[in-house]
Amino acid sequence: MTVDSSCGTAAEKERGEERSPDRWMVVFLNDDYTPFDWVIDVLIRIFERTPVDAMTVTRSVHQQGRGIAGVYPRVKALRLVAKCMSEARRDGYPFTCIAVPAEGGGLSL
What we know:
The chain is an alpha+beta fold. The protein has a domain of 68 residues: CATH 3.30.1390.10. It is 43% helix and 19% strand. It is built from 4 helices and 3 strands; from the N terminus they run αβααβαβ. It has a 3-stranded antiparallel sheet. α2 packs across α3. The longest helix has 18 residues. InterPro entries: ClpS, ClpS_core, Ribosomal_bL12_C/ClpS-like.
């Protein structure tokens, strides 16, 4: 099964949010300290990804240095980044994720 990182959750699709022109990618960046299981848990809990999708994204982060957690409207993407970063610091991990414009964001993925 391939991961379609160009869309948000099923609920967002139903509301038509996937058609918003203001789309931002939430990108997870690799580090050598944040546990694999922690990243998978965040993807499932915060980003509402399936366990299979979460594993696929986490493997991409580990193997390629980055992975797309999802594509969302700008405000939601920034809120999700803030929540992840807050939980990472609370749990003592140097985990980093960023939000970049989905179209022409200048981040080579």
